[in-house]
Fold this sequence. Notes:
227 residues; 26% helix; binds iron/sulfur cluster
Amino acid sequence: xxxxxxxxxxxxxxxxxxxxxxxxxxxxxxxxxxxxxxxxxxxxxxxxxxxxxxxxxxxxxxxxxxxxxxxxxxxxxxxxxxxxxxxxxxxxxxxxxxxxxxxxxxxxxxxxxxxxxxxxxxxxxxxxxxxxxxxxxxxxxxxxxxxxxxxxxxxxxxxxxxxxxxxxxxxxxxxxxxxxxxxxxxxxxxxxxxxxxxxxxxxxxxxxxxxxxxxxxxxxxxxxxxx
Length: 227
Ligand code: SF4
């Protein structure tokens, strides 16, 4: 697998905010968002590692509550990532037979049919949680179907995101959790739009809420391992 860095920190956004997490940042992305936080990191040289070796590296890190695959776009390395997730399902992590697995994705990479069974929503707790952040340059598409997979949506609120777009998506999947994060935590500029979207969606019982990139408030807290 092509890995940019692995590190341990506290998840700063989305449904697992505040949890101790091991992060694996996979190299490469299929998009070029102007506001990308990771552009600098993604230009730095990563390293190549097998799924088995990466499992050992993660398991050797201090125990966490959560494993997060991020990027870049982790689903570009779907085959290798699936191999790694299978190992985690078989052996657990840090002595925990069933660690929470989160994948942060832009939602534009289709799941390969032969691998999709690993990711499908299941009755037992061994399931992968996709946190999908759809992007304007792909018309906010989400190819990971929330009817089949465990999906939370997370939108960057900026000039591109419209009330109608979010409302249409929320009406299509009314059970889904959705976060609205102001671009660059710029609350002064983007809070009016957050309020507009919340007003349009919450009155109809949709599960949408304001999010914050807490790690940008907490500051740099990561401890590097490898990479
Ligand atoms: S999809 Fe994410 S990682 Fe890729 S360019 Fe956009 S913000 Fe950056």
